[in-house]
Each structure stands twice: as C-alpha cells, then as structure tokens.
Design goal:
There is one protein chain. By secondary structure, the protein is an alpha+beta fold. The protein has a single domain (2-75), classed as NE1680-like fold (Roll), CATH 3.10.510. It has one helix spanning 60-70, and strands at residues 2-8, 15-19, 40-48, 73-75. A four-stranded antiparallel β-sheet has the order 3-1-2-4. A hairpin with a 6-residue loop joins β1 (2-8) and β2 (15-19). It is globular, with a radius of gyration of 14 Å. 12% of the residues are buried.
C-alpha cells in the first residue's frame, strides 16, 4: 500500500496518513478530532508500506488497519536517541 503523510502544522508529532492520491480536504473527519490535525502540510508522499520491512517511527500495521476502517490513519511518529557513556 502506498500512502501520503500529512503533518500537523500545530503539533509537530501529529500526522494523518491516507492512501496515495487521496484529497485530504475530501476526508470526513469526526467532530471530536484533535484540532491540531485540522491544519496540515504535506510531509511525505508515495511512501510504500511493507510490513515485512521495518519503518523507523511508524507502526505500519496500525496505519494500514486504520486506513482500511476509516480511509485515513491518525498517528504520531517520534524517534528517540539515547546516548550512553561506557
């Protein structure tokens, strides 16, 4: 599955992913949605999801399941780096 990812311009770790080519303004979002997700900018386009290959900071299974149910997926993405002194 190929997806387009949009990032909230108000909450840096908030994203909506949709099937590639979906017009974001055509989504029927619930009224209870986080208001930070109402102002978006393109983040990554045509990303190929492949659950056999790990994607840093993305739970591909959860994104695919949400898209299958809702037509979109709401998620966060964050990479944490821990440095240890040895």
């Amino acid at each position: 599955m190929k997806i387009d990812i949009y990032q909230s311009t108000k909450g840096e770790n908030k994203y909506i992913s949709v099937p590639k080519g979906t017009k974001i303004e055509s989504l029927k979002l619930p009224t209870s949605i986080d208001p930070d997700l109402l102002t978006l900018s393109p983040f990554k386009t045509r990303l190929e999801l492949d659950v056999s290959k790990k994607q840093p900071a993305l739970d591909q299974d959860a994104i695919i399941k949400q898209i299958e149910v809702n037509g979109y997926a709401i998620h966060g993405a964050k990479t944490v780096i821990v440095l240890k002194i040895q």
